[in-house]
Every structure is written in C-alpha cells, then in structure tokens.
Amino acid sequence: xxxxxxxxxxxxxxxxxxxxxxxxxxxxxxxxxxxxxxxxxxxxxxxxxxxxxxxxxxxxxxxxxxxxxxxxxxxxxxxxxxxxxxxxxxxxxxxxxxxxxxxxxxxxxxxxxxxxxxxxxxx
Length: 123
Fold this sequence. Notes:
Number of domains: 1
Number of strands: 6
Strand order of the largest sheet: 3-4-5-6
Oligomer: single chain
C-alpha cells in the first residue's frame, strides 16, 4: 500500500486507521492504530534501506511493523540521531540491534548490527 508521506491521523495503514503519529526524523514516522502499528518511511528513505529488506513477511511498501521489523529502518536510516537525548538514543539503538539479530540475523551486517551491542549508537 503506497500512501503519501507523511501519513496523517485518520489515514490508512496496514493495521487500520492511524490514531497517533510520532516523527522519527525527516523521512520516518511511528504510527499507531487501535490494534498495532509500526514505522512508515518516505520513498526516498526506502531507497536507502538495503533492497532485500524492503519487504518482509510482515512489512512492505515503506511500512515496517512494530514487533519484528521496526529496527530495519531505525538502523538503516540512523534514526538514533533524532532521539531527544543520548541516553535514549543508546537504549533504542541497542534494542534495534537485538531485534535485528533475533528476527533478521542474515541482514545484521548490512544494518550495522553485527558488532558491539552495548547500546552505543553508530556513526
């Protein structure tokens, strides 16, 4: 489902109508619905994500679900740089590394999740 970016409250997502949006940088937003959610990225941002990860069993077309796939755009796009402080950036980056290692281990190296997972943001 290709939709305009950024989405708006009330617009469609793979999980139903969007109830809440949280910007994660200029090309990504977290969306939540009554039942689920995830991350929506712009087409420009999607082009910066390794092609084999554009679609998974749960995600596609710039939508990345919140349980297994949110970490793909988070790491690929360096979204830790947009966190409000360094402590939160380190915490969420470490969680993203853990998530990728668990659900997408074959792509960990491409996402920078194959080294130190002590919560240190990349770059």
